[in-house]
Amino acid sequence: MTWHILGAGSLGCLWAARLARAGEPVLLLLRDRQRLAQYRASTGVGLREGDNFSRFPIAADTLDGNQPIQRLLLACKAYDAEEAAASVAPRLAPTAEILLLQNGLGSQQAVAERLPRARCIAVSSTEGAYLEAPFSVVWAGRGQNWLGDGSEQAPAWLAALDKAEIPQQWTTQIDARLWKKLALNCAINPLTVLHQCRNGLLAEQQETLATLCSELAALLSRNQVRISADELLNEVLQVINATAANYSSMYQDVQQNRRTEIAYLLGYAVQNARAHHLHCPAFEQLHQQLQNALAQRGLPTD
Ligand SMILES: NC(=O)C1=CN([C@@H]2O[C@H](COP(=O)(O)OP(=O)(O)OC[C@H]3O[C@@H](n4cnc5c(N)ncnc54)[C@H](OP(=O)(O)O)[C@@H]3O)[C@@H](O)[C@H]2O)C=CC1
Ligand SMILES: CC(C)(CO)C(=O)C(=O)O
Questions:
Q1: Measured at the alpha carbon of residue 175, what is the angle toward residues 242 and 239, in degrees to the nearest 5?
Q2: Three-state SS for 268?
Q3: Confidence of residue 141 (pLDDT cuts 50, 70, 90)
Q4: Nearest CA-CA partner of 254 in 220, 292, 213, 205
Q5: Recorded E.C. number(s) (predicted)?
């Protein structure tokens, strides 16, 4: 069964290289002929792990190819997910499965509504990767991939991920995983943008973090995710400590003048709180401040 991977960015290349290395059939789906020509000139997907670099001559095609798709890994940003998934809809087999690698919340629901016949499996990933050159990925941080669609029924192909050394765990609580990661990202990432700092410096912002965690814990509770404000604050401080020397993904996006996933993180939290009539002045204000900072740089505020 071919792994169709839509999006040859950081995570798309990371998954493609590891699957290909394990002998799994992989086909990259690129946005157009220009990207395909660029890929073909690069002689494959590069994977750097520490001092080792390998290149994998993985097959690629454009989105409008004609091979039917049974298994799709959607490896684009959250704001591209719905349109990207819709563009391959005519090619999806009736029992197609789609793995959604997007961070935050909102895009998974949008894809599932757009493609109601497909089995949509959300992935919450704590792995870290970035591109050092087009189609060449650096595996920068070991982590876990939590997969789930709310059901107990784990797909048989999870064994292929083990073989490919892609860490994986099936969970019946994928929404809780996504919410908790969203809460961490909402507490940490916007502050690193506003203070222009590495994650570690946020340890000095304990009061602000405590207020945010209290509001975020209340929001998670409205969404049936049980975590106390103190537990959340502890987790946030642990992540800040463990990633002290790193710049958050949102900070990096802003520095490189790339669109952020604000709408699927803080924006989603604000909207969800309003829908629950939950008063969350601290993260409403943070959202506004982040939008102002993005606007000042000429970046999209959604
Ligand atoms: N990188 C990481 O370490 C982690 C990322 N994530 C999440 O994973 C998701 C993907 O992130 P990441 O891999 O870093 O993102 P990247 O920006 O590196 O890659 C996204 C890729 O998607 C491609 N793409 C977008 N739309 C289309 C389309 N319509 N057709 C074909 N290709 C398309 C882009 O192509 P093009 O280059 O042509 O624009 C780009 O190559 C995000 O939601 C992120 O938050 C989660 C955990 C860790
Ligand atoms: C390390 C962490 C948790 C910081 O929020 C992250 O996931 C990111 O940078 O996006």
A1: 10
A2: helix
A3: confident
A4: 292
A5: 1.1.1.169
Single-letter amino acid code for the residue at 212: L
CA 77 to centroid of chain Cα atoms: 7
Compute the distance from residue 161 Cα to the ligand 2 centre, in Å: 24
Atom 4 of ligand 2, nearest CA residue: 248
239 within ligand 2 shell (Cβ under 6 A):
yes
What are φ and ψ of residue 202, in 5° steps? -70, -15
The torsion angles phi and psi of 237, rounded to 5 degrees, stand at -65, -35
CB 26 within 8 A of CB 58: yes
What is the widest separation between alpha-carbon atoms in the chain? 55
pLDDT value, residue 43: 87
Q: Give the chain's domains with CATH numbers.
A: 3-172 (3.40.50.720), 176-296 (1.10.1040.10)
What is the value of pTM for the model shown? 0.96
Q: What is the token pair recorded at 224?
A: 């049936």
77 is catalytic: no
Measured from the CA of 185, which atom of ligand 2 is nearest? 5
